Amino acid sequence: MLPTDRTEQETTSAATGLLDRPVANRARPRALIVAVAAALAPALLAPATAQAAGAKKARKPKKADETTITVGSDETLTLTETTTATELVIEEGGVITVDDGYSLSLTVNGVETGSELAALTDGYGGVATAIAAGTYTGTVVLNVAEATDVAYSTLTFPFRQAIYVDADGVDEDKSVPSDVLDGTVTDTGASDITLLSDGEAFNGVYVAGGGSYTLTDPTIAFDGNGRCDFVGYGAAVVGTGSGTTLVLDGANISNVGVVRTAVIADATANVIVKNSTIKCADGVVPAEYPAAGTGDTRYMITVPWMLGISGNVRATNLLGASTKATYINSSVSSEKWGALSVDGGSYCTLTAINSTIANTGGQGYGSYAIGNVTEHFLGCTFDVGDYALIHWGASAHYGDSTKDAVSDLNDSLSLGLTSAELDDLPVQSTTIDAGRFMVMWYAAGSVAIDGGTQVSTGETTFMCKAVAGTVTVDGSDGATITTGNGVLFQLMDTDRPSSVTVSGKPWSSETTGTYTEPTGSPAKSSSWDPTTSQSTDAKGTFTDIALTGDFYNSVRGGGNASLQGQNLALSFTRTTVEGVISASTAMHSVSTITRTEYREISEVTNTPGAVVNNGVLVTLGESSTWTVTGTSYLSALTLASTASITAPNDRTVTLTVDGTETDIEPGSSYTGALALTVS
User: What is the mean pLDDT of residues 232-261?
Assistant: First the structure.
């Protein structure tokens, strides 16, 4: 709600203060859309491309120059058409409503304001908004628009948006024209527009139903909570539906609020963002939200703490089946939680080219991958609080933005980049700076690293939670891996507490589970073979690279967590590796982890020990050398004829197989209880 003790000019300045750069009034033809102090409830489309007369019923505003609308504490005002005034007074208990099938939005001086979401516990999902009590002065427009109801699971979200686009172009009847400041709007695109909101759950541009739309140089700044980023309720821009293409070029989006997402791609749409800056910052979580959070996606508005991070807004989300989202020459950041997310989708494609991906608040991930998604990162810079990638079943690639690679993606993803745009994109390598881990696997899937990619992590580089995670690193073009805590790969049991089913509440579960460290020695499984490669193994393949760091497999097996065992299979070709490679026992610094200790997730120390159900299979291929820096326990070892195993200077390495000292010979293979010791 805008303060009442400011002039109209001052309130306009306050609104533009939400932005990173000032918004100047621009000289433009009278036919173009609304300016800050322009005519009341103007037409949204520029006449040159407006829909044919009579195609859609226009709403005729009721002009009310220099008037005050007052709604008393015991009164309900029902509006049937868009209404304007210079002052609106809503006393506590006063209500403004519209007929079924319509929505109500308030703008003051071109800023959507006053909208408040219902409580999550209202019995309807808390998705409805009402205009808050207060006094609003300036150019006051009460917009009555046709409803845009979007179903998700058992809830229906009553979307309101500044611009609604379908296959026929802009639908003025579903739009809120008075929220559009500056610029030009046509049926095929909008340029130089500004959209501002300090209310809740208001959307900027919603493109659906096979529409194709281009936003050029838009400025969008929303300050206030959204409600659901699994459907985009409250997002700056949404592209959804089969055949829908939404292009953002030169966008500046800056949102603050709980799940006040910047960009949503959904339901097979193709969303392309280029030359843009997108950033989102956390808001204040509603008091009725469960303290521990929920994994029920109808209500989930904070990141599940079991991921070891916090936050309540992710900058982007990719949803639905076979949906595509691409970010080119852009900057995408979230305060915490996540910058780029794929959640609630299947077989989607997420791509970033020559872009910066960051968390500004010290926690969070660069990207999230679930549902057999494919993710491409070419020439990107990651500066993330915790993870470059949280992996729930995907194929991810980090490499260089070569001309051929970008051109191939331009064709396969229908990015629409011109020859000039392709030529102007410089060839860059990817740089990853992650505060804790590069990748955390919670489900089977692959990661490929090549080109000149530079990976630097504050802690363990590759963290795999008892699943068949695979990583392939090709250093032939200069890729490097640097670990902050000396551990390159950790295969371990999951330490992720589970959600707990609840009843009598709107949400079906709460994340109140506890992880308890297992005690005692693991029981050896009679059905698990730790000496042979199996489809459920975690695998690492390294070629033409120098590695310094340790590799551990601490999976207990023996029926623990229904897992009989799991192996870590490592292959090195023309590679030098210096460190410990071993089965181990991993321990947290605390015996139990609840939401209070959420930062202890994945934080373990290793004690090397003999293989039980945690096989370690090492293949030293052509021209590879392993310098053993400490006692290492394996279950299988294969050396190519040009491979070697050494110890640090002035030390020697000894191999025992089932307790018998054995010579290490190139071209040989060994299986059983293997121990390499350094003396």
Answer: 98
- What is the radius of gyration, based on Cα positions, of the chain? 29
Confidence of residue 43 (pLDDT cuts 50, 70, 90): low
Q: Which of 463, 525, 447 is nearest to 495 (CA)?
A: 463
Say which residue the tokens 């459920």 belong to: 536
**Beta strands at 95-98 and 102-108: parallel, antiparallel or unpaired:** unpaired
Classify residue 15 as left (phi > 0), alpha (psi -120 to 50) or beta: alpha
DSSP 8-class letter at 524: P
User: What single-letter DSSP state applies at residue 621?
Assistant: -
pLDDT in tens, 489-537: 999 999 999 899 999 999 999 999 999 999 999 999 999 999 999 999 9
Quick check: helix, strand or coil at residue 424? helix
Nearest to 366 by CA among 322, 283, 431: 431
d(CA 171, CA 518): 59
Is pLDDT at 55 greater than 90 in this prediction? no
- Residue 410 and residue 404: Cα distance in Å, rounded? 10
Residue 497, both tokens: 């507490």
3-state secondary structure 262-294: CEEEECCCEEEEECCEEEEECCCCCCCCCCCCC
* Length, in residues, of the chain: 679
Burial of 588 (0-12, 13-18, 19+ CB in 10 A): middle
Helix and strand numbers, DSSP H then E, in the chain: 3, 61
At 45 the pLDDT is: 55
Closest Cα partner for 300 from 2, 553, 8, 510?
510
* pLDDT over 80 (residue 21): no
CA dist., res. 194 & res. 180, Å (int): 6
pTM over 0.85: yes
- Give the alpha-carbon dihedral of 276, 328, 215, 302, to 10 degrees: -70
Q: Which of 456, 448, 485, 470 is nearest to 579 (CA)?
A: 485
Distance from first CA to last CA of the chain, Å, rounded?
73
With beta carbons less than 8 A apart as the criterion, state whether 534 and 567 touch: yes
Return the DSSP state at 13.
Answer: H
Tell me which residue of 304, 316, 374, 376 sits closest to 346, measured CA to CA: 374
Task: Give kind and range of the element (H or E) at residue 333.
Answer: strand 331-334
Find the mean pLDDT for residues 629-641: 98
- Coil/strand/helix, residue 89: strand
Tokens representing residue 464 in the block: 């795999």
Q: Which of 105, 102, 70, 104 is nearest to 86 (CA)?
A: 70
φ/ψ region of 93 (left if φ > 0, alpha if ψ in -120 to 50, else beta) reads left
- Could you identify the residue written with the tokens 């979230």? 334
669 pLDDT higher than 60: yes
Q: Extract the tokens encoding 556.
A: 């207990």
| Angle (CA) 20 21 27, round 5° | 150
What CA–CA distance (Å, rounded) separates 61 from 113? 19
Residues 58 and 156: their CA atoms lie apart, in Å, by: 26
**DSSP-assigned states of every residue in 122-155:** SSSTT--EEEPSEEEEEEEEEEEEE-EEEEETTE
All residues at 6 or more sequence positions from 641 whose CB lies less than 8 Å from its CB, including other chains? 666, 667
Q: What is the mean pLDDT of residues 349-372?
A: 98
Cβ neighbours around 661 below 10 Å, total: 10
**DSSP string over 192-219:** S-EEEE-SSS-EEEEE-TT-EEEEES-E
With residue 15 as reference, give the H or E element that holds it. Answer: helix 8-16
Side-chain-side CA neighbours of 75 within 13 Å: the count stands at 13
What confidence tens digit (pLDDT) does each residue in 120-176 have?
A: 999 999 999 999 999 999 999 999 999 999 999 999 999 999 999 999 999 999 999
